[in-house]
Design goal:
It is a single chain. The chain has 139 residues and is of the alpha+beta class. The protein contains six helices and five strands; from the N terminus they run ααααββββαβα. The chain has a three-stranded mixed β-sheet, with no helix packed on it. Strands 1-2 form a two-stranded antiparallel ribbon. A hairpin with a 5-residue loop joins strand 3 and strand 4. Bound molecules: zinc ion (3 copies). The site of one zinc ion has 7 residues, from loops.
């Protein structure tokens, strides 16, 4: 049984083809996407309506299969909650979001508890800039 099936069963919801398609896409993309971006991505993979994408994302959010992420640009994006710890790069020009798996921050946790007795349980860090396509001669 594949991951999408398993996760859908886990929340006690029916595994309709469309739900599976949406969840699979979110796992494949492995980065935050807006409902429209997801719809565009899916429209190449079979018939699915925009409303279905929106409704399904709402259901998935309620069931904690996805989380809603809002960066500085204010756009609502959704990302699978099953991707593991990572950080984001947000392009200021085209708005595309990339994921980076590498995290150099966790080594700070030890320092923080030593220095302040504060126990860190999570952290967020995002980078803003220009993606390869939008970077042009900015280097
Ligand atoms: Zn992410
Ligand atoms: Zn870009
Ligand atoms: Zn990190």
């Amino acid at each position: 049984m594949d991951r999408a099936n398993e996760l859908l069963r886990g929340i006690g919801e029916k595994c309709t083809e469309q739900r599976k398609l949406i969840l699979k896409a979110l796992l494949e993309l492995a980065r935050p996407v807006s409902a429209d971006e997801l719809y565009m991505y899916l429209s190449g993979k079979g018939r699915i309506g925009r409303t279905t994408v929106y409704r399904t994302l709402e259901l998935f959010e309620q069931k904690k299969l996805v989380k809603r992420i809002i960066f500085k640009d204010g756009i609502i994006r959704y990302e699978s909650t099953h991707l593991g710890h990572h950080h984001h790069l947000i392009c200021l020009s085209c708005g595309k979001v990339f994921s980076i798996k590498k995290c150099a921050i966790s080594s700070l946790d030890g320092f923080i508890i030593e220095d302040t007795d504060f126990l860190v349980t999570e952290h967020f860090l995002e980078f803003y800039g220009f993606c390869e396509k939008c970077r042009g001669d900015r280097v």
